[in-house]
Amino acid sequence: MMTAAAALVLGVAGTAVLGTPAAAQRAGFYAVEGMGGDGSRYTGAVQFTPTGPQTWRLSWRVAGETINGVGVSNGKTLAVAYTQGGTLGTVLYEIGPDGSMQGIWTAGREGGLGTERLVPR
């Protein structure tokens, strides 16, 4: 969801692999791999903290920078709003049966789409 300098990694605490997307999403840490709209690649980590039955607080750590966001899930997808250095952004993830997530993101006024994959740790 960012440039290489602002790369993210998302991690979820290791638990048994679950069979449905709703059950697969869990609190903890995920490893993150992504690509910005300009083709730059990044890695990092993110922590998911539940704030309600279908809501989450996310905290990414990428390239020494912390990015915070909030998300809501319907069990199949997770929509996230975040801020990075005063810039607003959004991410939409599809949740896989193994707990991994594949997403697209955009930030700022310029738009453009990046991609990101989260894998439970």
Describe this structure in words.
The structure is a single chain. The chain is mainly beta and 121 residues long. The model is unreliable at 1-19 (pLDDT under 50). It has 1 helix and 8 strands; from the N terminus they run H-E-E-E-E-E-E-E-E.
Please summarize the sheet with the most strands: 8 strands, antiparallel, barrel
Number of helices: 1
Taking the alpha carbons of the first and last residues, their distance comes to 19 Å
What is the alpha-carbon Rg in Å?
A: 13 Å
Read across the widest sheet, the strand sequence of neighbours is 1-2-3-4-5-6-7-8
The structural class is: mainly beta
- Fraction in beta strands: over 45%
Percent helix, as a range, is under 10%
User: What spatial form do the alpha-carbon principal axes imply?
Assistant: globular
Would you count the extended β strands for me?
8
**If you average the pLDDT, what whole number results?**
83
- Uncertain stretches of 5 or more adjacent residues: 1-19
Order of helices and strands: HEEEEEEEE
